[in-house]
Design a protein that fits this description.
By secondary structure, the protein is α+β, with helices and mostly antiparallel strands. The protein has a domain at about 55-88. The chain is built from one helix and two strands. The chain has a two-stranded antiparallel sheet with strand order 1-2. β1 and β2 (about 65) form a beta hairpin. It is elongated and about 65 Å long. The two termini are about 50 Å apart.
Length: about 90
């Protein structure tokens, strides 16, 4: 019972601390800039089951790889890791 009570008190203390660290809006501070809406998705005429158009992307060593090189030979899976290897 004491364990549960001390865990509850610790949880409440953490919540109070987190609440105290949140910035409060004051009349003298300027409002934060509104977030811009993301750009609209590019329009395409592709449908499920259509053959993907040919494209070229660099591999991990910077050499160009064409989708057409794999057509009829292997399955291709594209995975996008945003900013994964950019150092940013």
């Amino acid at each position: 019972m004491i364990r549960k009570l001390s865990a509850l008190l610790l949880l409440l203390a953490c919540a109070a601390l987190a609440h105290a660290q949140q910035p409060t809006a004051s009349p003298t501070t300027a409002p934060s800039p509104a977030r811009q809406a993301p750009p609209p998705a590019p329009k395409t005429n592709l449908k499920v089951g259509d053959v993907a158009p040919d494209f070229t992307l660099p591999d991990t060593e910077g050499h160009p790889v064409h989708l057409a090189d794999f057509r009829g030979k292997k399955n291709v899976l594209l995975a996008f890791y945003v900013l994964a290897f950019t150092g940013g």
